[in-house]
Design a protein that fits this description.
Chains A, B, C, D: One of its GO terms (molecular function) is nucleotidyltransferase activity. The structure is a homotetramer. Chain A is α/β, with parallel strands linked by helices. Chain A contains 9 helices and 29 strands. The longest helix of chain A has 13 residues. Chain A is elongated. β14 of chain A pairs antiparallel with β14 of chain D, so a sheet runs across the interface.
């Protein structure tokens, strides 16, 4: 069992902050980060009655049944308010290509499958088309075993309810009638755009052994994201019991170092630790919280979890020490790809190692054809065509075509959905002079090139002016954290120097 | 080639009618019927330029290529403003069970497959969960052949566009970026909730031979639905060219008989014929109309088709003489089931005959167990349990359990998603005394019993007061056109007499 | 834990019987029954060395790993020397249709899947075409989960080995190079033509807890098959340790009652109990026995098991008390179908109940159409057409067509692979006046009608002369145990009285 | 329409050669090559009656129906007498890996699919295990469309027939009861181990237009294989009608050049051209020939085709001018791989180009990881791990691991079925010091390294003694045509110099 490595006692207080929530299209807020100022009004007094204890409701599952019959996963396929734009211009976060052959959501779904959880509901609404398509092609029955499924629940209209999901809690509440189809014992709520490798069975085991109502997975690893605003922060005691759920805000950062020095009363019995937005929650507890206690709660973390705490429920933290990346920004995404290459032990190398498989759409591509390439510290996807080129520290995606003389370094090339000429899937209307792929004698450094991009000849994508942030979307690219991001299907004319 | 059997000349004019459109959640309005008063403002002057002629744009497909490579179908999976409530309470029209083993949308998708069209996009938004689930389980690759797919495009939010589809034209416009993936020559627009058997290849052949911009399939069969309000009506000349697209409204019905007698000038060169809401339209024409000419059009029939006519495009009618039912009401749905039983030649017997298969989710149910049953003129789905009972003129759905002494006549029993006790999929929380199925000594006449209903013992569902229309939803049923409709998962206590 | 109900001490001795083996095409002899006289020459002296103990070989699997990763099943898909002729004329035993919708082998494969064993090798050679086809269609990935498969290993020729499998041991030995692909801990050897429902996980648990080399499942139920010749009989002590493996022969029946009275010394510490031909055996033990100790053994039961006993290995019996039917004869097959109907608790009702699913090819047939039928105590498969007819105590298979006036009692109608007219799969060459199905006014009693049979009008299949056994194959039928068996695709002309 | 480029008139006569056939396990002899001396005794006199004309039998298919409903392919999955040993030691020819990601048979099956033929029977018997497994995994429904299948028919025993297939004609005859399931108009007989890209629809069109009984595809391309012994040679007239079918034997080579000069009477109306072993034959003709006229014929080419000619049937040649390779030897296989790299226009570049897909098992491998490689003119399969190495003119198969310092040139590395350590599929018993893959500082030139081979460190596989042919099987390799062939799973110890 992991141990908390940080001990601090300063109680984080955000309760006084007034907020104005615009419930536009934020699915993920409570799932690990949160960008809004928000102060949900919790009911001041809750009856401390036994009805909150789901264990008193006759549990249909005895003796800790097999995980694949007793736990259903709820994956949020898309975040919103994403800082991953422009990668999310036409797709949700979960559908972003990563590590040459995969989509981001494959990491979480594969975690489920490898943890023997095969009842998986994916809730989607934001730019969901490509994600829905990916999920139904990648996980249709095969490899999910008896009664296993990945079921996409897209936001929908109904006679009672015409609007979009208003947050994570609202989304789950509206889908409860579907989610309750199988008599599972617990729901496992998962953000779909995080990158990590976890055996959820250990979380389930801990949850059941401790007879918790809710278990929250928290990151005990050495990551930098506890400095981020919007991250949910758990105050836990030495038994890993969660005492408080807070949000790290812009103005009031949780400075752990300071927190520790400010410890009053020498009280080292509490720690602050960032939530990973992963919740294991008893089925009956879920229904009770969403329908009875907080029927208007929209966000899961700030409203439902806080509410459960206020009701005196048993909320525990499960500390996870491995690599965890929540793709909170273009830079984080870029780093995750670079770490995939480096195969650092501390990094999430799930895509690149072979310990346990990461699933995705099974494909049938021809082998990669290499004419004359020097390739260093790179990862090459299926079915590429690499002419005379140099590739270094780069993730090269499926069907990438790199032409003579090209030099690619420190970059992420997402590849192409099609072979341009050969299979005729290209639009007949658009007639373009620049073909899909990387043109002759083109140089690319520290860039992300989205799918189906058409980079001409003698192009330099090198951030020549060393811009930190720049929106050149009309020209087909964006600069974010000094990283050049070429848009999906963008066309960069010959001889451009960016 | 079918011949028009009605010849009339009165020009139907609805152009003067002012309308007030409430763009709530109407996906299907223009697809064969229309309930709103509406008068779209067409641009007064259109350049009669060659740009309208899609044939001048180099067509990527020569020599009438195989249908499966050159046509993509766009199926509207759900109507709204449905008069099929309560069958649509938790599902869209396309997901309504029909003919024991099927869902309504299976008819149209199977028409596509049997017509060699294997690129099928299903656009959904209204109560779409069950429909999405059905489509992805039923049509995941198998039987769709090389590069075939049924791709569900659920309504979604995006940075540019936060709202729901605002009608059929709007839905197609927003999805064009997906629909244009393959270089098809034509799009085939299809309502997903109609019942008929058609070889679309004949429509395509006619369209190509006549070099039409748009071909609209119109019903030349002997049906009663040309009396319905909201039906789109085509005025066609003797060459089947469409001269006008009108809506039949409440106040201003198209009385064909009268129309004929009112013919002025002895002009018998025009006919009025109801549109089936099926449009075959050249790809470039579609893009032009939606993006360039009518970028704000919401409805396909009243706005885009009328607009195309006003632009002088070549719009032709293809006359279809077979059985066609558009499920416009509970009664129509009920009759379609009864006709399925009767296997009338005029009726749509596609589900019941074996001429060409209707596809659905492949299943693996045990055989039907019959203890002692007299069964007359009925259709029995897979995996039923029929104890000592009498069944007459009834459609019995999958997994239906009918207990001793029950009598069922002239009814539609939709069956159950689960075997109640045995597979444990029932919610553990809900404890109910009435089991799923039809109880002992219960009598049911002229009723539709939705899925998973629990009908107790000694119940009579006979519309005892001969009510025409009645909303007893709180009691678990609704009366529509004297047909008793028991709601999904409703529980009718023992000894009830309805 | 089941208790032995028979206590006897007479040591069964068959060792003196000289035998003449004709190794024609007997795959299954040792798997539960044996028709040949045979006396394998066991090596007279075996070193009682530790090398026999597979536990000393480092076991790759620790801590009793999940069954689906540590056990592979070897299913013998076909018996030979079958007494099920003519049902086996064109198919192996495992491919015989049973219970309307299934094939015999589905019972064993479903037992595996329901026991979480998902690595299944099916060894076939005798009339294997239909069985191979069935297995690859029914179990291709779906429902088998991660890394699960049903792999058909058909007998094959190779440079080293030109002949057929010479028995069960020989078949396994030749396939070891395939079977060893996954590092499983144990192999589970299963006859594919038996009918029973068993959770093999209990066998595995017992085997591992007792640290056995080999566990043999033996039937402790009340069955009549211990009177059959050829059944393997285990002599076990009170700890269920196997002391001896014998064959019940024609001339020297194991008369248990007599055996008991002949008990010498009042020694009640031994029992005789029939083997079910199910062996769980450690992987290393299997390899050792087949390759090192008995490299020429052909039959698993009489040679390898006896050999293991002679080597002093730890061979245990697992007693199974449920229903078990090994389809040793037409009569047994007929009774199994009748019991399926009766759903006796003592009978194998797996096909008819819904406790745990029996898998087979997922299908997509139209519902059964019933015009006017009285059906009693019967089971009806998918997609039948039942006109005005009476059906009693009958198993009606898929796509059966029964015409007006027909009466069917106490029979097994296997149905049809095709709908005759509609889908055109019928041979165009064969022009026949009698259509597939049961003709008008035909009467069938106590018969098995194989697939695609064409029974004319006014036919009586009633065994009019009360024949016990009769070979009328030229006329399209066979009589076995007074049961009329109409051959596959046979044509019985109008007005025949059989 | 291709034109014959060779014109010669010498009638090739082999009829006088007495032969002694050893019908061991030769499946493919007549399919393009033949090693045996053989003189089938044709019936001396055949009635030239109309019964031979299949067109008089009412053809169920009118108006040239769609190919996918009217033609079934019969693919011979395995040859025997193969000169591809040791690649065929544990597999049939069709299962040999080629072009990194494929198996040889994928070429022919993909030709079928791309020609819209989706009813494919694969007849197998020789070392068929891996082939059967491949086919059922690669072609189970997906991409085969409505009613499409690849059905493996393994040789089997039956009551009537205990032996193996005795040749191609015998194999088809025995399987006719299966092959006749669908009412196709023609059978297309295909060797499964040839490499070429052909649209069979053109052959079918020619066959139907010319109303032929049999159409034989013959190679009109510039290949060297017309010098091979055992090739079937067609004598055709200027209308491409086949006049004679001969075998090119060792002693009596068909020397085309000489043939031409020896032309008597200046008769240039005949040509000799090598058969590709591809036969399109009317269904009824097939049945007639195999069952009625030549019920004992074993080989299709030498017996059935010759017989058909002697009966006066209309046998036509379809001339194919593209690349064709029949993998008659290790050298031919090696050259085919090299040509795949070179992408010569004259070569079969189907695997490497993207014109039309070649299908195989869909996979889900991680991207190839490259640490520091110089790769020239090579093809890299999915999921490789390439450390600091140089690769030139080499086909690198799936999951190949190449370690630091290795140099590979002009070679075919087939890769591995597993990742050695990571997924644990390796046998636990075999403990080996040399891991799977290519060891450090190892040098490989002009070699074929079969799957799962373990090449140690500092090894040189360079044919140091420049041996032409050599059998070092005990040492893990064979030399054939100066090409080093390392056996499947062979272990080459560190520092070996071969």
């Amino acid at each position: 069992m992991p141990q908390t490595s940080l001990m601090m006692t300063l109680q984080f207080s955000s309760s006084g902050t007034p907020v104005n929530v615009q419930a536009k299209h934020f699915l993920i807020p409570g799932l690990g980060r949160y960008d809004h100022k928000y102060s949900p009004k919790l009911p001041s007094k809750f009856p401390k009655a036994s009805i909150f204890n789901s264990h008193q409701i006759p549990n249909p599952i005895l003796h800790q049944p097999p995980v694949n019959q007793s736990v259903a996963a709820i994956v949020f396929g898309d975040g919103s308010e994403s800082r991953l734009y422009p990668l999310t211009k036409r797709r949700s976060e979960g559908a972003i290509p990563i590590a040459s052959n995969y989509r981001l959501i494959d990491a979480v779904v594969s975690n489920c499958i490898n943890s023997n959880i095969n009842k998986i509901y994916a809730l989607t609404q934001f730019n969901s088309t490509s994600l829905n398509s990916h999920l139904s092609r990648a996980y249709s029955g095969a490899s999910l075993g008896k009664e296993g499924f990945v079921e996409v629940i897209a936001a929908y209209q109904s006679p009672e309810d015409l609007g979009w999901f208003q947050g994570t809690a609202d989304a789950i509440r509206r889908c409860l009638w579907v989610l309750e189809e199988y008599p599972v014992a617990e729901f496992l709520v998962l953000p779909g755009h995080h990158l990590y490798k976890m055996d959820y069975q250990k979380v389930i085991e801990s949850h059941r052994n401790r007879k918790s109502d809710i278990t929250i997975v928290a990151s005990n690893g050495i990551t930098k994201r506890d400095q981020d605003q919007g991250v949910g922060v758990l105050k836990i005691n030495t038994e890993n019991q969660v005492m408080q759920y807070s949000l790290k805000s812009n103005k009031e950062p949780v400075n752990y170092a300071v927190a520790e020095t400010l410890t009053r009363c020498n009280d080292s019995s509490y720690s602050y630790i960032p939530s990973m937005g992963i919740y294991l929650i008893n089925r009956a507890t879920m229904v009770n919280l969403l329908n009875n206690h907080f029927p208007k709660a929209m966000d899961f973390g700030t409203e439902v979890i806080r509410g459960a705490l206020s009701l005196g429920m048993k909320v525990e933290a499960y500390l996870f020490e491995g690599y965890w990346e929540d793709m909170r920004s273009i830079e984080a995404f870029y780093q995750a790809n670079m770490e995939c290459i480096k195969k650092l032990n501390t990094g999430y190398n799930s895509f690149c190692d072979r310990d346990s498989p990461v699933y995705t759409i099974p494909r049938n591509l021809p082998p990669t054809v290499v004419n004359d390439a020097m390739i260093t510290d790179s990862v090459i996807g299926d079915g590429c065509i690499l002419n005379r080129c140099k590739i270094k520290s780069t993730v090269v995606g499926m069907r990438t075509k790199i032409r003579d003389g090209a030099i690619i370094e420190d970059s992420v090339i997402m590849g192409s959905d099609v072979y341009q000429i050969e299979d005729g899937r290209e639009s007949s209307i658009k007639s373009t002079s620049v073909p899909i792929g990387i043109g002759e004698n083109t140089e690319i450094r520290k860039a992300i090139v989205d799918k189906n991009a058409r980079i001409g000849k003698n192009v330099k994508i090198i951030n020549k002016d060393n811009v930190e942030e720049g929106d050149r979307e009309a020209n087909g690219y964006v600069i974010s954290g000094r990283i050049m991001v070429v848009l999906r299907s963008a066309e960069i004319p010959d001889n451009s120097i960016l």
